[in-house]
Amino acid sequence: VNNKLNWTPKTILKDSASIEQFWNFIFQPKIELLISNKIQNRRFKVIEYFKSKGLFDNKNTAIIDLGWFKSTQYKLNKIIHTTNNDLVIKGIYLGVMEKRIDDKFSGNSFSLFQEEFQKENNQYIFNNIPLLEYIVGICNNGSVIGYEYTLNNRIDVRCKEISESSIHFYNSVEREVIHFFKFKISVKKLFDFSDQEIQIILNNLVCNFVKYPTREMLHVIKNISVSSHLTTEESKRLLSPVSFFDLIFNRSKFYESIIYWPYANILISSKTVQIFYYCYKKINRIFY
Length: 288
Hints:
Blueprint: H1 2-5, H2 16-26, H3 29-52, E1 62-65, H4 71-80, E2 90-96, H5 103-106, E3 109-114, H6 115-118, H7 124-127, H8 129-135, E4 144-149, E5 155-159, H9 164-183, H10 187-190, H11 195-211, H12 215-220, E6 225-226, E7 236-237, H13 244-249, H14 251-257, H15 262-267, H16 271-287
Parallel strand pairs: 1-2, 2-3
Antiparallel strand pairs: 4-5, 6-7
C-alpha cells in the first residue's frame, strides 16, 4: 500500500484528500492490529525498564525537570496506570506554563515559577525557555528513541547516536555548571532562603546570563546546536555571527539567526553589525 501511495516517513499530507487517504489506510483491520501489537510491545518494554530501575518500589516518587507543560509526567502516569493504579508520579519543576496539563490528570507537582503569576514581572525564565532547554537541559546522550532487549536479556533504553566529540563537549559544559554551583554559589545556603527569594536569585541569574554574555562564556558553549523543535534532526549552531548583508537587506534571515539569543549572536558579530544593530534599537525606542 505504501508503494502505491508513494509515502515515506517524511511525507507531508497537504490536502484533505491525502489526509482522508491516510486515515483510510490506518483503519484497515490488518493495519490497526499491527499498530495495536506494536503499542502493547513497546508499553511492556517501557514498564519492564521502569521496574528494573525501581520506579514501582516506592509510592513517594517524583520526576525532576525544567518544565513546562507537565506532559512527560502525564504520559508517565498514563503508562504506569495500565499496571498499577496506586502509584502516582509527582513532578518537581523549575517552571510551568499557564496552559499546562491539570494536576487531576498529570498528578501533583511543585514549581518555583508559574507563568500565570509572573506576567506582571519581567520573568527571564519564561522569556528564554528554548535557551534554557539547550543549555541547562544539555545531556551527554542522544534523544531516547525506544527500549530494547540487550545481549543479557535485559531491557535498556536506546538513544539516538551522537559523536564522541559531542559527548566530550557536553561533559565539559556539565563540569563547568557543577563548578559554578560548587564555587560561585553555596547550594546549602539556598535552602535558607524562601521560595520568593530563590525566585529572585534565579531570575537575576538568567537575566544576567542572557543580557550580558561574555566572549569567554560563549566560548564554552559555542558548539551547542539548536533546531526549530526540540525533537527535529535538522539543526544549526546556537551561536553564529550575523552578516551585515542580512542585517540591512535580508531582515527575515537576520531575525531567524538571532531568534534564540540576540545578545550573544550580536556580540560575536563584526563591530559594524554591532553598531548598526544597537543604533537601530535605540531609534526604535525613541520613535516607537
